[in-house]
Amino acid sequence: MARTAVPGRLGDRLRWRVAEVTGRRVESPTAVTVVLDAPDWPGHLAGQHVDVRLTAEDGYSTQRSYSIASASDGQRLELTVQCLPDGEVSPYLVDELAPGDQLELRGPVGGWFVWGQEQTEPVLLVAGGSGLVPLMCMIRTREMAGSRAPFRLLYSVRTPDELLYRSELREGSPGLDISCLYTRQAPLDAPRPPGRVAPHDLVRNGWPPDFEPTCYVCGPTGFVEKAAAYLVLLGHAPERVRTERFGG
After folding, report:
1. Domain total for the chain?
2. Quick check: 16 and 106 in contact, CB under 8 A?
3. Residue 114 within a domain
4. Are residues 62 and 156 in the same domain?
5. Per-residue b/e over 82-112, b at no fewer than 16 CB within 10 Å?
6. Distance from the Cα of residue 91 to its chain's centroid
7. Is there a domain that residue 1 lies in?
8. Are residue 128 and residue 232 in the same domain, yes or no?
């Protein structure tokens, strides 16, 4: 599949712009969604991310990349951030950032791990933990566009308490099938015991290779490498398996 064009001029996407926090939602005990107002935002594609830069009073500056969770909607952006215990940026974004605060943003970034509204083929989304964030952007963009492309989401998370977007996923939408797998603790009514994603999970909850779905896999590096390898082993064309990973 051809790479998708990225909206906005390159120079505009590479400049830093100031965004104001207008709200925040708690998604889990360790994750929040930050709602931002970003004037002159050039728009984004489902699956892209932004660079966030923080600068201290003494001039020290640091930056991190975060996937965009919201569908493209004017100058409004949503970033879902998972707090890392030893992180330098995420604890501040999760625990201290408040409405009225400002962040510097650069982007959107990325042109390969994206879903476009013109795509009509079946889509398989495979998420590990907070790897759901860019895939949720795809789900929301699909719904906003009124697309009939069939989506299936396989969401692997450690425990029920760590589910992101719980109520929204529970409501679902036509043409979207959702399966949640738990690796450490599962609800009593879960269809399978706790465990890591295995090939039979991808067979049961995914699409047959002859349907030629586009597969998007996002999560920690180890999760992504295994899930992508399983998909190819099951017969999916490597060029139809797109991956995005985080961590070492």
Report:
1. 2
2. yes
3. no
4. no
5. bbeeeeebbeebbeebeeebebbbbbbbbee
6. 19
7. no
8. yes
Reference 29, options 182, 132, 164, 186; nearest CA is 164
Q: Which of 202, 200, 148 is CA-nearest to residue 176?
A: 148
**Which residue from 235, 246, 185, 173 is spatially nearest to 207, judged by alpha carbons?**
235
What does the pLDDT profile of the chain (248 residues) look like in tens digits? 233 344 555 566 688 999 999 999 999 999 999 999 999 899 999 999 999 999 888 888 899 999 999 998 888 999 999 999 888 999 999 999 999 999 999 999 999 999 999 999 999 999 999 999 999 999 999 999 999 999 999 999 999 999 999 999 999 889 999 999 999 999 999 989 999 999 999 999 999 999 999 999 999 999 999 999 999 999 999 999 999 998 65
Q: For residue 83, what are the domain limits?
A: 10-109
